[in-house]
Amino acid sequence: MIFGKTKLELKVGVFVFIGLILLLVFVLSIGGFKTWSSGYRINLIFNFVNGVKLGAPVRFAGVDVGEVKNIDLQFKAAENHTNVCLDVWIRDVVRIPADSTVWVNTLGLLGEKYIEIVPGKDYAHALKENESLVGVDPVPTNELFSKAQNIMSNLDSGIARIVNKEGTLGRLLYDDKVYNELEALVADVRKNPWKLLIKAKEKK
Prior knowledge:
The protein is α/β, with parallel strands linked by helices. The protein has helices at residues 2-30, 141-163, 167-174, 176-191, 194-203; strands spanning 39-46, 57-60, 63-76, 81-91, 101-107, 112-118, 132-134.
């Protein structure tokens, strides 16, 4: 009886063990087997990262090749300035030229931030473990709104000048005298196109 109970427990244990192994393989497959992949770390330096979070994807030439592992703020007393240092993990098979361009990009409608690396041409000097690359700072949202407001303000001002008959376009649209003179000039040129040739010769 004891032997039968032990045999049953052994079967249950083996079954549970196999289930845990399958679950582990499933989880790792979702994560891209990053735990088993070899890679290296590099540092990306920014002044502003616009909401990049830990685990954010890193893309090289449009392909996912790594992720952000750590975000650190570094204050440089000599420059009286704070930099954002992103510690990113890159797959070992990827070589990033030292002249590559790096910036923060936005993925989809939800606005998820990720790191985009556009490869350079200097593969002879590819980045190695713990080496750094300075990124291009994204434009803050408030600055974009400010520029849009300035454009709209200038557009409103231009429309107001036209409505008030100011400027060349305003006078042309609303001043009958300018319109009549322009119409008379066009009519005269149509009747006497040779006048254009005389003027061209005079200029020469």
